[in-house]
Amino acid sequence: MPATRPDLSLLPRPGKVSPRPGRFTLGQDTSVRALPGAEPAADLLRTLLGPTTGLPLPPSAEGRVVLALDPQLGGLGDEGYGLTVGPQALLLRAARPDGLLRGVQTIRQLLPPEALSGGARGVSWELPCVEISDVPQYSWRGAMLDVARHFQPVSYLHRYVDLMALHKLNVLHLHLTDDQGWRMPVEAFPRLTSVGGRRTQSLSDGVPHAGAYTRAELSGLVRHARERGVTVVPEIEMPGHVRAALAAYPALGNHPERHLDVWTRWGVCDTVLGVHEEVFDFCRTVLEEVMDVFPSPYVHIGGEECPTGEWESSRAARDRAAAAGLSGPGELHGWFMGRIGSFLVEHGRRPTGWAETGSELPPEFTVMTWRDPAHALTAARRGHQVVTAHHRTTYLDYVQSTDPDEPPAQPGAPVPLHAVHTNEPAPRDWEPEDASRVLGTQAQLWTEYVTTPDRIEYLTYPRLCALADRAWSGGRSDWAGFVERLRDHTARLDALGVRYRPLTTRSLATASAGTAPPPR
Protein backbone atom coordinates (compact mmCIF):
# COMPACT_ATOMS: atom_id res chain seq x y z
CA MET A 1 0.00 0.00 0.00
CA PRO A 2 1.78 3.13 -1.21
CA ALA A 3 2.54 6.06 1.03
CA THR A 4 0.57 8.31 -1.34
CA ARG A 5 -2.60 6.54 -0.23
CA PRO A 6 -2.80 6.92 3.56
CA ASP A 7 -6.47 5.96 3.33
CA LEU A 8 -5.22 2.50 2.31
CA SER A 9 -2.68 2.22 5.14
CA LEU A 10 -4.65 -0.57 6.74
CA LEU A 11 -3.54 -2.31 9.89
CA PRO A 12 -3.30 -5.25 9.99
CA ARG A 13 -2.23 -5.54 6.37
CA PRO A 14 -4.88 -7.25 4.21
CA GLY A 15 -3.96 -10.20 2.04
CA LYS A 16 -4.76 -8.49 -1.26
CA VAL A 17 -5.57 -4.84 -1.91
CA SER A 18 -6.37 -3.46 -5.36
CA PRO A 19 -7.02 0.31 -5.43
CA ARG A 20 -9.68 1.50 -7.88
CA PRO A 21 -10.40 5.00 -9.17
CA GLY A 22 -13.10 7.07 -7.53
CA ARG A 23 -14.69 7.55 -4.13
CA PHE A 24 -17.81 6.19 -2.42
CA THR A 25 -19.81 8.62 -0.31
CA LEU A 26 -21.63 7.79 2.90
CA GLY A 27 -24.30 10.40 3.49
CA GLN A 28 -27.54 11.04 5.32
CA ASP A 29 -29.44 9.14 2.64
CA THR A 30 -27.15 6.09 2.62
CA SER A 31 -28.91 2.93 3.75
CA VAL A 32 -27.73 -0.62 4.45
CA ARG A 33 -29.01 -3.81 2.91
CA ALA A 34 -28.21 -6.78 5.14
CA LEU A 35 -28.96 -10.13 3.56
CA PRO A 36 -30.07 -13.02 5.83
CA GLY A 37 -27.46 -13.72 8.50
CA ALA A 38 -25.67 -10.39 8.00
CA GLU A 39 -27.89 -8.38 10.37
CA PRO A 40 -25.45 -8.51 13.34
CA ALA A 41 -22.68 -7.03 11.19
CA ALA A 42 -25.04 -4.29 9.98
CA ASP A 43 -25.95 -3.53 13.59
CA LEU A 44 -22.26 -3.30 14.49
CA LEU A 45 -21.65 -0.93 11.57
CA ARG A 46 -24.38 1.38 12.87
CA THR A 47 -23.21 1.06 16.47
CA LEU A 48 -19.66 2.03 15.58
CA LEU A 49 -20.31 4.70 12.94
CA GLY A 50 -23.61 6.25 13.96
CA PRO A 51 -22.44 8.11 17.08
CA THR A 52 -19.23 9.38 15.44
CA THR A 53 -20.44 10.25 11.92
CA GLY A 54 -24.01 11.31 12.66
CA LEU A 55 -25.23 8.97 9.91
CA PRO A 56 -28.27 6.77 10.67
CA LEU A 57 -27.44 4.10 8.04
CA PRO A 58 -31.00 2.71 8.18
CA PRO A 59 -31.89 -0.73 6.84
CA SER A 60 -33.35 -0.81 3.35
CA ALA A 61 -33.87 -3.36 0.60
CA GLU A 62 -32.43 -0.75 -1.77
CA GLY A 63 -29.37 0.04 0.33
CA ARG A 64 -26.12 0.90 -1.46
CA VAL A 65 -24.12 -0.63 1.37
CA VAL A 66 -24.68 -4.39 1.02
CA LEU A 67 -23.60 -6.99 3.56
CA ALA A 68 -23.96 -10.63 2.54
CA LEU A 69 -23.17 -14.07 3.91
CA ASP A 70 -22.26 -16.57 1.22
CA PRO A 71 -21.26 -20.05 2.48
CA GLN A 72 -19.97 -20.81 -1.01
CA LEU A 73 -17.00 -18.53 -0.30
CA GLY A 74 -15.25 -21.40 1.44
CA GLY A 75 -11.79 -20.09 0.72
CA LEU A 76 -12.39 -17.20 3.11
CA GLY A 77 -12.66 -19.51 6.13
CA ASP A 78 -14.28 -18.38 9.36
CA GLU A 79 -12.92 -14.84 9.42
CA GLY A 80 -11.97 -13.89 5.88
CA TYR A 81 -13.97 -11.38 3.85
CA GLY A 82 -14.16 -9.74 0.47
CA LEU A 83 -14.80 -5.99 0.23
CA THR A 84 -15.55 -4.12 -2.97
CA VAL A 85 -15.98 -0.36 -2.79
CA GLY A 86 -17.15 1.28 -6.02
CA PRO A 87 -18.36 4.82 -6.73
CA GLN A 88 -22.01 3.77 -6.43
CA ALA A 89 -22.03 0.87 -3.98
CA LEU A 90 -20.14 -0.97 -1.26
CA LEU A 91 -20.33 -4.77 -1.06
CA LEU A 92 -18.99 -6.74 1.91
CA ARG A 93 -19.15 -10.54 1.66
CA ALA A 94 -18.00 -13.39 3.88
CA ALA A 95 -18.63 -17.09 4.35
CA ARG A 96 -19.16 -16.72 8.12
CA PRO A 97 -20.54 -14.00 10.39
CA ASP A 98 -17.15 -13.23 11.94
CA GLY A 99 -15.78 -12.48 8.51
CA LEU A 100 -18.34 -9.72 8.11
CA LEU A 101 -17.34 -8.30 11.51
CA ARG A 102 -13.70 -8.14 10.36
CA GLY A 103 -14.81 -6.38 7.20
CA VAL A 104 -16.72 -3.79 9.21
CA GLN A 105 -13.46 -2.84 10.93
CA THR A 106 -11.79 -2.43 7.53
CA ILE A 107 -14.60 -0.08 6.47
CA ARG A 108 -13.91 1.98 9.59
CA GLN A 109 -10.23 2.20 8.72
CA LEU A 110 -11.01 3.28 5.14
CA LEU A 111 -12.91 6.29 6.43
CA PRO A 112 -11.06 9.46 7.41
CA PRO A 113 -9.76 9.27 11.00
CA GLU A 114 -12.18 12.03 11.99
CA ALA A 115 -15.01 9.58 11.39
CA LEU A 116 -13.79 7.60 14.41
CA SER A 117 -13.84 10.56 16.79
CA GLY A 118 -17.21 12.21 16.22
CA GLY A 119 -15.57 15.52 15.47
CA ALA A 120 -17.66 16.43 12.43
CA ARG A 121 -21.13 14.97 12.76
CA GLY A 122 -23.76 15.24 10.09
CA VAL A 123 -21.48 15.61 7.05
CA SER A 124 -20.82 13.20 4.22
CA TRP A 125 -17.91 10.80 4.49
CA GLU A 126 -15.89 9.39 1.60
CA LEU A 127 -14.14 6.05 1.25
CA PRO A 128 -11.59 5.25 -1.46
CA CYS A 129 -12.71 2.78 -4.08
CA VAL A 130 -10.85 -0.47 -3.56
CA GLU A 131 -11.13 -4.23 -3.81
CA ILE A 132 -9.89 -6.27 -0.86
CA SER A 133 -9.64 -10.01 -0.30
CA ASP A 134 -8.49 -10.82 3.20
CA VAL A 135 -7.99 -14.00 5.25
CA PRO A 136 -6.09 -14.26 8.57
CA GLN A 137 -3.03 -16.43 8.92
CA TYR A 138 -3.83 -17.54 12.48
CA SER A 139 -7.12 -18.27 14.22
CA TRP A 140 -5.91 -17.14 17.69
CA ARG A 141 -4.90 -13.48 17.77
CA GLY A 142 -5.14 -12.37 21.33
CA ALA A 143 -4.29 -10.05 24.17
CA MET A 144 -4.03 -11.11 27.81
CA LEU A 145 -4.92 -8.48 30.41
CA ASP A 146 -4.11 -9.11 34.07
CA VAL A 147 -6.88 -7.60 36.21
CA ALA A 148 -5.86 -9.60 39.29
CA ARG A 149 -2.79 -7.53 40.22
CA HIS A 150 -4.56 -4.25 39.45
CA PHE A 151 -8.32 -4.25 38.98
CA GLN A 152 -9.77 -2.28 36.06
CA PRO A 153 -13.42 -1.19 35.79
CA VAL A 154 -15.57 -3.12 33.35
CA SER A 155 -16.18 0.06 31.35
CA TYR A 156 -12.50 0.10 30.49
CA LEU A 157 -12.59 -3.58 29.51
CA HIS A 158 -15.27 -2.64 26.97
CA ARG A 159 -12.93 -0.03 25.50
CA TYR A 160 -10.07 -2.53 25.54
CA VAL A 161 -12.21 -4.92 23.49
CA ASP A 162 -13.20 -2.15 21.07
CA LEU A 163 -9.56 -1.35 20.36
CA MET A 164 -8.72 -5.03 19.96
CA ALA A 165 -11.55 -5.45 17.45
CA LEU A 166 -10.35 -2.46 15.42
CA HIS A 167 -7.08 -4.37 14.94
CA LYS A 168 -8.88 -7.65 14.14
CA LEU A 169 -7.73 -9.34 17.34
CA ASN A 170 -10.22 -11.98 18.41
CA VAL A 171 -9.30 -13.30 21.89
CA LEU A 172 -9.37 -11.36 25.16
CA HIS A 173 -7.61 -13.58 27.70
CA LEU A 174 -8.78 -12.24 31.07
CA HIS A 175 -6.47 -13.09 33.98
CA LEU A 176 -9.02 -12.97 36.82
CA THR A 177 -7.23 -14.47 39.82
CA ASP A 178 -3.78 -14.57 41.33
CA ASP A 179 -1.94 -14.31 44.64
CA GLN A 180 -2.72 -10.59 44.82
CA GLY A 181 -6.44 -10.64 44.09
CA TRP A 182 -9.55 -12.63 43.10
CA ARG A 183 -11.88 -10.66 40.81
CA MET A 184 -14.68 -13.05 39.77
CA PRO A 185 -17.65 -13.69 42.05
CA VAL A 186 -18.59 -17.29 42.83
CA GLU A 187 -21.96 -17.61 44.53
CA ALA A 188 -20.98 -20.61 46.66
CA PHE A 189 -17.81 -18.90 47.90
CA PRO A 190 -18.56 -15.21 48.55
CA ARG A 191 -15.35 -14.64 50.52
CA LEU A 192 -13.33 -15.09 47.32
CA THR A 193 -14.17 -11.50 46.41
CA SER A 194 -15.08 -9.98 49.79
CA VAL A 195 -11.75 -11.14 51.28
CA GLY A 196 -9.69 -12.29 48.30
CA GLY A 197 -10.54 -9.19 46.30
CA ARG A 198 -8.80 -6.85 48.76
CA ARG A 199 -5.19 -6.38 49.81
CA THR A 200 -3.72 -3.99 52.33
CA GLN A 201 -1.13 -2.53 49.99
CA SER A 202 0.73 -2.97 46.73
CA LEU A 203 4.47 -3.38 46.52
CA SER A 204 4.76 -0.80 43.76
CA ASP A 205 2.96 2.02 45.58
CA GLY A 206 2.05 0.98 49.16
CA VAL A 207 -1.62 1.80 48.56
CA PRO A 208 -4.51 -0.54 49.53
CA HIS A 209 -6.22 -2.08 46.53
CA ALA A 210 -9.63 -3.71 46.00
CA GLY A 211 -12.04 -4.59 43.25
CA ALA A 212 -14.26 -7.34 41.89
CA TYR A 213 -16.70 -7.72 39.02
CA THR A 214 -20.33 -8.69 39.30
CA ARG A 215 -21.65 -11.62 37.34
CA ALA A 216 -23.80 -9.21 35.32
CA GLU A 217 -20.74 -7.12 34.42
CA LEU A 218 -18.82 -10.14 33.19
CA SER A 219 -21.82 -11.43 31.23
CA GLY A 220 -22.22 -7.98 29.68
CA LEU A 221 -18.55 -7.94 28.72
CA VAL A 222 -18.93 -11.33 27.03
CA ARG A 223 -21.90 -10.01 25.00
CA HIS A 224 -20.09 -6.80 24.08
CA ALA A 225 -17.08 -8.77 22.92
CA ARG A 226 -19.12 -11.33 21.01
CA GLU A 227 -20.87 -8.56 19.05
CA ARG A 228 -17.41 -7.50 17.90
CA GLY A 229 -16.15 -10.99 17.12
CA VAL A 230 -13.99 -11.27 20.25
CA THR A 231 -14.04 -14.31 22.55
CA VAL A 232 -13.33 -13.77 26.25
CA VAL A 233 -11.19 -16.60 27.61
CA PRO A 234 -11.26 -16.64 31.44
CA GLU A 235 -8.26 -17.66 33.52
CA ILE A 236 -8.62 -19.03 37.05
CA GLU A 237 -5.19 -19.88 38.45
CA MET A 238 -4.48 -23.26 40.09
CA PRO A 239 -2.84 -25.03 41.88
CA GLY A 240 -0.35 -22.19 42.43
CA HIS A 241 -0.85 -18.40 42.36
CA VAL A 242 -3.77 -18.95 44.78
CA ARG A 243 -2.81 -16.90 47.85
CA ALA A 244 -5.95 -14.73 47.55
CA ALA A 245 -8.17 -17.83 47.54
CA LEU A 246 -6.35 -19.27 50.56
CA ALA A 247 -6.75 -15.97 52.43
CA ALA A 248 -10.49 -16.36 51.92
CA TYR A 249 -10.69 -20.11 52.58
CA PRO A 250 -7.69 -21.47 54.55
CA ALA A 251 -9.11 -25.01 54.51
CA LEU A 252 -8.18 -25.24 50.83
CA GLY A 253 -4.48 -25.10 51.67
CA ASN A 254 -1.91 -27.48 53.02
CA HIS A 255 -2.04 -25.79 56.43
CA PRO A 256 -5.76 -25.24 57.13
CA GLU A 257 -5.01 -23.83 60.57
CA ARG A 258 -2.97 -20.99 59.07
CA HIS A 259 -4.56 -17.61 58.32
CA LEU A 260 -2.98 -15.79 55.41
CA ASP A 261 -3.44 -12.34 53.97
CA VAL A 262 -3.88 -11.54 50.30
CA TRP A 263 -0.31 -11.28 49.06
CA THR A 264 1.11 -7.77 48.84
CA ARG A 265 4.32 -8.73 47.03
CA TRP A 266 5.09 -9.55 43.41
CA GLY A 267 6.74 -12.71 42.13
CA VAL A 268 5.99 -16.34 42.98
CA CYS A 269 4.29 -17.11 46.28
CA ASP A 270 5.09 -20.51 47.83
CA THR A 271 1.53 -21.23 49.02
CA VAL A 272 -0.43 -23.68 46.85
CA LEU A 273 -3.70 -25.55 47.00
CA GLY A 274 -3.88 -28.79 48.90
CA VAL A 275 -4.69 -32.02 47.12
CA HIS A 276 -7.55 -33.29 49.33
CA GLU A 277 -11.02 -33.82 47.86
CA GLU A 278 -12.43 -30.63 49.35
CA VAL A 279 -10.06 -28.74 47.02
CA PHE A 280 -11.35 -30.53 43.94
CA ASP A 281 -14.93 -29.90 45.01
CA PHE A 282 -14.01 -26.22 45.26
CA CYS A 283 -12.33 -26.14 41.86
CA ARG A 284 -15.23 -27.88 40.16
CA THR A 285 -17.76 -25.51 41.72
CA VAL A 286 -15.73 -22.46 40.67
CA LEU A 287 -15.24 -23.73 37.15
CA GLU A 288 -18.91 -24.60 36.76
CA GLU A 289 -19.75 -20.96 37.44
CA VAL A 290 -16.94 -19.82 35.14
CA MET A 291 -18.33 -21.96 32.33
CA ASP A 292 -21.81 -20.61 32.98
CA VAL A 293 -20.62 -17.01 32.56
CA PHE A 294 -18.05 -17.54 29.80
CA PRO A 295 -19.16 -19.62 26.78
CA SER A 296 -15.60 -19.69 25.42
CA PRO A 297 -14.55 -23.17 24.25
CA TYR A 298 -11.26 -22.54 26.09
CA VAL A 299 -10.93 -22.26 29.87
CA HIS A 300 -7.49 -21.32 31.17
CA ILE A 301 -6.45 -22.75 34.54
CA GLY A 302 -2.94 -21.31 34.77
CA GLY A 303 -0.78 -24.14 36.11
CA GLU A 304 2.60 -22.42 35.97
CA GLU A 305 5.07 -21.48 38.70
CA CYS A 306 3.76 -23.99 41.23
CA PRO A 307 6.27 -24.58 44.05
CA THR A 308 6.03 -28.10 45.47
CA GLY A 309 7.59 -27.38 48.86
CA GLU A 310 4.29 -27.43 50.76
CA TRP A 311 3.35 -30.78 49.20
CA GLU A 312 6.75 -32.24 49.99
CA SER A 313 6.45 -31.26 53.64
CA SER A 314 2.81 -32.34 53.97
CA ARG A 315 2.10 -35.88 55.15
CA ALA A 316 -1.36 -35.69 53.58
CA ALA A 317 0.08 -34.68 50.20
CA ARG A 318 2.74 -37.39 50.32
CA ASP A 319 0.09 -39.97 51.13
CA ARG A 320 -2.06 -38.69 48.28
CA ALA A 321 0.85 -39.03 45.87
CA ALA A 322 1.47 -42.60 47.02
CA ALA A 323 -2.22 -43.50 46.74
CA ALA A 324 -2.27 -42.12 43.18
CA GLY A 325 0.74 -44.25 42.26
CA LEU A 326 3.05 -41.27 41.82
CA SER A 327 6.78 -41.42 42.50
CA GLY A 328 6.51 -38.49 44.90
CA PRO A 329 4.79 -35.17 45.66
CA GLY A 330 6.63 -33.49 42.80
CA GLU A 331 4.34 -35.34 40.40
CA LEU A 332 1.20 -33.99 42.05
CA HIS A 333 1.23 -30.96 39.73
CA GLY A 334 0.64 -33.03 36.59
CA TRP A 335 -1.86 -35.21 38.41
CA PHE A 336 -3.76 -32.13 39.61
CA MET A 337 -3.84 -30.57 36.16
CA GLY A 338 -4.97 -33.87 34.67
CA ARG A 339 -7.94 -34.14 37.02
CA ILE A 340 -9.08 -30.58 36.37
CA GLY A 341 -8.44 -30.91 32.64
CA SER A 342 -10.57 -34.06 32.47
CA PHE A 343 -13.38 -32.25 34.28
CA LEU A 344 -13.34 -29.46 31.69
CA VAL A 345 -13.23 -31.94 28.80
CA GLU A 346 -16.26 -33.76 30.27
CA HIS A 347 -18.08 -30.43 30.11
CA GLY A 348 -17.18 -29.84 26.48
CA ARG A 349 -14.41 -27.32 27.10
CA ARG A 350 -10.75 -27.25 26.14
CA PRO A 351 -8.41 -26.89 29.13
CA THR A 352 -5.63 -24.37 28.60
CA GLY A 353 -2.51 -23.73 30.64
CA TRP A 354 0.87 -22.00 30.74
CA ALA A 355 3.65 -24.39 29.77
CA GLU A 356 6.97 -24.14 31.59
CA THR A 357 8.77 -26.49 29.18
CA GLY A 358 6.17 -27.52 26.60
CA SER A 359 6.21 -31.14 27.77
CA GLU A 360 4.61 -31.15 31.23
CA LEU A 361 0.87 -30.63 30.64
CA PRO A 362 -1.57 -33.48 29.93
CA PRO A 363 -2.23 -34.15 26.23
CA GLU A 364 -5.74 -32.67 26.21
CA PHE A 365 -4.41 -29.21 27.08
CA THR A 366 -3.98 -26.31 24.73
CA VAL A 367 -0.68 -24.85 25.86
CA MET A 368 0.71 -21.33 25.98
CA THR A 369 4.50 -21.34 25.80
CA TRP A 370 6.23 -18.31 27.23
CA ARG A 371 9.71 -19.08 28.53
CA ASP A 372 11.53 -20.11 25.36
CA PRO A 373 10.46 -20.29 21.68
CA ALA A 374 11.81 -23.86 21.55
CA HIS A 375 9.10 -24.93 23.99
CA ALA A 376 6.44 -24.23 21.37
CA LEU A 377 7.99 -26.79 19.05
CA THR A 378 8.29 -29.28 21.91
CA ALA A 379 4.58 -28.90 22.64
CA ALA A 380 3.57 -29.12 18.98
CA ARG A 381 5.55 -32.33 18.53
CA ARG A 382 3.69 -33.82 21.51
CA GLY A 383 0.42 -33.10 19.70
CA HIS A 384 -0.72 -30.08 21.71
CA GLN A 385 -2.50 -27.14 20.21
CA VAL A 386 -0.17 -24.22 20.86
CA VAL A 387 -0.53 -20.48 21.42
CA THR A 388 2.89 -18.82 21.45
CA ALA A 389 3.50 -16.14 24.06
CA HIS A 390 7.27 -15.80 24.21
CA HIS A 391 8.16 -13.20 26.80
CA ARG A 392 10.79 -11.47 24.63
CA THR A 393 8.32 -10.69 21.84
CA THR A 394 4.87 -10.56 23.47
CA TYR A 395 5.24 -9.32 27.07
CA LEU A 396 4.09 -5.71 27.03
CA ASP A 397 4.81 -5.11 30.73
CA TYR A 398 8.50 -4.63 29.88
CA VAL A 399 9.66 -1.13 28.98
CA GLN A 400 9.80 -0.23 25.31
CA SER A 401 13.27 1.35 25.34
CA THR A 402 16.21 2.18 27.58
CA ASP A 403 15.10 5.82 27.69
CA PRO A 404 15.41 6.94 31.35
CA ASP A 405 12.04 8.69 31.06
CA GLU A 406 10.18 5.40 30.58
CA PRO A 407 7.74 4.83 33.46
CA PRO A 408 8.38 1.96 35.91
CA ALA A 409 7.77 -1.49 34.46
CA GLN A 410 8.66 -5.14 34.87
CA PRO A 411 12.40 -5.56 35.53
CA GLY A 412 14.21 -6.75 32.44
CA ALA A 413 15.52 -5.66 29.07
CA PRO A 414 13.17 -3.70 26.80
CA VAL A 415 10.73 -5.32 24.40
CA PRO A 416 10.76 -2.73 21.62
CA LEU A 417 8.23 -2.38 18.85
CA HIS A 418 10.48 -4.11 16.35
CA ALA A 419 10.84 -7.18 18.58
CA VAL A 420 7.07 -7.57 18.69
CA HIS A 421 6.84 -7.34 14.90
CA THR A 422 9.41 -10.12 14.53
CA ASN A 423 7.14 -12.49 16.46
CA GLU A 424 6.70 -15.60 14.31
CA PRO A 425 4.29 -18.09 15.92
CA ALA A 426 5.31 -21.00 13.65
CA PRO A 427 8.78 -20.43 12.15
CA ARG A 428 9.21 -21.31 8.49
CA ASP A 429 11.71 -24.11 9.19
CA TRP A 430 9.16 -26.17 11.17
CA GLU A 431 7.65 -29.28 9.68
CA PRO A 432 4.15 -28.55 8.28
CA GLU A 433 2.52 -31.00 10.70
CA ASP A 434 4.01 -29.20 13.70
CA ALA A 435 3.20 -25.75 12.32
CA SER A 436 -0.43 -26.78 11.80
CA ARG A 437 -0.83 -27.20 15.58
CA VAL A 438 -0.04 -23.54 16.27
CA LEU A 439 -3.32 -21.71 16.74
CA GLY A 440 -1.63 -18.32 16.87
CA THR A 441 -0.19 -15.89 19.36
CA GLN A 442 -1.13 -13.25 21.89
CA ALA A 443 0.33 -10.32 23.82
CA GLN A 444 0.57 -10.33 27.62
CA LEU A 445 0.19 -7.37 29.96
CA TRP A 446 0.91 -8.31 33.58
CA THR A 447 -0.04 -5.40 35.79
CA GLU A 448 2.22 -5.42 38.83
CA TYR A 449 3.41 -1.96 37.77
CA VAL A 450 0.38 -0.95 35.72
CA THR A 451 -2.28 0.81 37.75
CA THR A 452 -4.39 2.87 35.35
CA PRO A 453 -5.95 2.69 31.88
CA ASP A 454 -3.53 5.40 30.72
CA ARG A 455 -0.59 3.18 31.63
CA ILE A 456 -2.24 0.17 30.00
CA GLU A 457 -2.59 2.02 26.72
CA TYR A 458 0.92 3.49 26.85
CA LEU A 459 2.42 0.02 27.23
CA THR A 460 0.00 -1.67 24.85
CA TYR A 461 0.07 0.66 21.87
CA PRO A 462 1.57 0.72 19.34
CA ARG A 463 3.15 -2.65 20.25
CA LEU A 464 -0.18 -4.46 20.03
CA CYS A 465 -0.54 -3.03 16.51
CA ALA A 466 2.65 -4.90 15.61
CA LEU A 467 1.42 -8.18 17.04
CA ALA A 468 -1.95 -7.79 15.31
CA ASP A 469 -0.21 -7.15 12.00
CA ARG A 470 1.86 -10.32 12.14
CA ALA A 471 -0.85 -12.55 13.62
CA TRP A 472 -3.30 -11.59 10.87
CA SER A 473 -0.96 -11.27 7.91
CA GLY A 474 1.68 -13.91 8.67
CA GLY A 475 4.62 -14.29 6.32
CA ARG A 476 7.91 -12.50 6.74
CA SER A 477 8.15 -9.38 8.83
CA ASP A 478 7.91 -6.38 6.48
CA TRP A 479 9.18 -3.94 9.06
CA ALA A 480 9.56 -0.98 6.70
CA GLY A 481 6.06 -1.46 5.32
CA PHE A 482 4.61 -1.79 8.80
CA VAL A 483 6.29 1.43 9.98
CA GLU A 484 4.93 3.29 6.95
CA ARG A 485 1.39 2.11 7.65
CA LEU A 486 1.72 2.68 11.38
CA ARG A 487 2.67 6.33 10.87
CA ASP A 488 -0.69 6.84 9.14
CA HIS A 489 -2.54 4.57 11.57
CA THR A 490 -1.61 6.73 14.55
CA ALA A 491 -4.12 9.28 13.27
CA ARG A 492 -6.82 6.72 14.00
CA LEU A 493 -5.40 6.10 17.47
CA ASP A 494 -5.38 9.87 18.04
CA ALA A 495 -9.01 10.12 16.95
CA LEU A 496 -9.94 7.41 19.45
CA GLY A 497 -8.01 9.06 22.26
CA VAL A 498 -5.55 6.18 22.68
CA ARG A 499 -2.71 7.20 24.98
CA TYR A 500 -0.04 5.31 23.04
CA ARG A 501 3.71 5.70 23.29
CA PRO A 502 4.67 8.27 20.62
CA LEU A 503 6.65 7.08 17.63
CA THR A 504 10.25 8.19 17.83
CA THR A 505 13.46 7.32 16.04
CA ARG A 506 14.36 5.14 19.02
CA SER A 507 11.02 3.32 19.08
CA LEU A 508 11.33 2.54 15.37
CA ALA A 509 14.84 1.13 15.73
CA THR A 510 15.40 -2.53 14.93
CA ALA A 511 17.77 -3.60 17.72
CA SER A 512 16.42 -5.67 20.60
CA ALA A 513 17.98 -7.25 23.65
CA GLY A 514 17.38 -10.61 25.30
CA THR A 515 17.05 -11.59 28.92
CA ALA A 516 15.90 -14.49 31.02
CA PRO A 517 12.26 -14.25 32.10
CA PRO A 518 11.63 -13.03 35.64
CA PRO A 519 9.01 -14.79 37.77
CA ARG A 520 5.59 -14.13 36.27
TrEMBL record:
- Say if the entry is tagged with keyword Hydrolase: yes
- Please list the reactions this protein catalyses: Hydrolysis of terminal non-reducing N-acetyl-D-hexosamine residues in N-acetyl-beta-D-hexosaminides
UniProt xrefs under PANTHER family: BETA-HEXOSAMINIDASE (PTHR22600), BETA-N-ACETYLHEXOSAMINIDASE (PTHR22600:SF57)
Residue ranges, annotated region (Disordered): 1-23
Looking up CDD domains in the UniProt record yields: GH20_chitobiase-like (cd06563)
User: What positions does the domain Glycoside hydrolase family 20 catalytic occupy?
Assistant: 138-474
* Family that this chain belongs to: Belongs to the glycosyl hydrolase 20 family.
Tell me the ranges covered by the Beta-hexosaminidase bacterial type N-terminal domain, including all copies: 9-134
SUPFAM superfamilies per the record? (Trans)glycosidases (SSF51445), beta-N-acetylhexosaminidase-like domain (SSF55545)
UniProt-listed InterPro entries: Beta_hexosaminidase_sua/sub, GH, Glyco_hydro_20_cat, Hex-like_dom2, HEX_bac_N
This protein's record includes keyword Oxidoreductase: no
Where do transmembrane segments lie in this chain? none
**E.C. numbers:** 3.2.1.52
Q: What is this protein called?
A: beta-N-acetylhexosaminidase
Q: The organism sits in which domain of life? A: Bacteria
Question: Which key words tag this protein in UniProt?
Answer: Glycosidase, Hydrolase
**Which organism does this sequence originate in?**
Streptomyces atroolivaceus
